[in-house]
Amino acid sequence: MSSKAPVLTPDLIKVLKIFLGSALALVLVLSFFDGYRANNTGKDRTFQVADADRLFFVNLRSIHYDREVRPEAGMELFRHGNRLKPDSIPTFFPALLLHSKQKEAYLFFELEGADYPIQIQAILGDEVIQLPFDLGGNTAHKALGEQLWSLLQQNASFSLSVNGKETPLWQTESEKEVLKTVLTDYFRILNQPQP
Predict the structure, then answer these.
(1) Segment 122-126 long-range contacts (CB within 8 Å, at least 24 positions apart)
(2) Please, which pLDDT band fits residue 34 given cuts at 50, 70 and 90?
(3) Could you tell me which residues come within 8 angstroms of residue 140 by beta carbon, excluding any fewer than 6 positions away?
(4) CB within 8 Å of 114: residues ≥ 6 apart
(5) What is the DSSP letter of 34?
(6) Helices (H), the chain
(7) Per-residue confidence at 35, pLDDT binned at 50, 70, 90?
(8) pLDDT in tens, 154-164
(9) How much is the pTM?
(10) Which residues contact residue 32 at a Cβ distance below 8 angstroms, ignoring those fewer than 6 apart?
(11) Which tens digit of pLDDT belongs to each residue from 101-136?
């Protein structure tokens, strides 16, 4: 064999072009499906919070909230500072719970001045929508938040029914703004679009 024989023969160049072209095409096609990876961890990621979203809330948004640390549960509870706090009528406002060890966030509607079960009535023009609610788990509270968000966008008015007695709920614009702010912050923490 002569020492002057070329290493890159025309046949080898053709093979390299085919191989590199198909590899590049495969990488390009698979990059479109990056968001569709399988979740093989077995964990429910519905309430998962990214570090950046948590830091955004704690550093910028939490100044509007009253913070309560629950060390026994490993959670921080955030209640909006402008929420209504009457003694005589029942109130129903959401609070944000951040679980630092599990890196999760939860929405929790706190009922004060009454007992469960309750029913929320949303009035849209002539239509009355009943939202029954019992002290459920994290998914029930999140689902209620999603329902309330869509009703708030339609300018619904609300009332709270406890044992057949109705009480106005979130009647003033400031109360509705507090509710909207808490829901917006919650969906922002979860990095989810608002429903």
Answers:
(1) 122/151, 122/156, 122/157, 122/158, 123/156, 123/157, 123/158, 123/159, 124/151, 124/154, 124/156
(2) low
(3) 133, 134
(4) 90, 160, 162, 163
(5) G
(6) 10-31, 51-56, 138-153, 173-189
(7) low
(8) 999 999 888 88
(9) 0.75
(10) none
(11) 889 999 999 888 888 888 899 998 889 899 888 777
Q: Give per-residue burial for 35-64: e unless 16+ CB within 10 Å, then b.
A: eeeeeeeeeeeebebeeebbebbbeebbee
Token digits of residue 185: 């912050």
Tell me if 98 sits within 8 A of 120, measured CB to CB.
no
In one letter, which amino acid is 45? R
Rounded CA gap, 114 and 167, in Å? 11
CA distance 96 to 80: 9
- In the numeric block, which tokens belong to residue 130? 């009943």
User: Which strands, in side-by-side order, build the sheet including 65-70?
Assistant: 65-70, 75-80, 91-99, 104-112
Residues in the chain, overall count: 195
Please give the structure tokens belonging to residue 161.
Answer: 């029914």
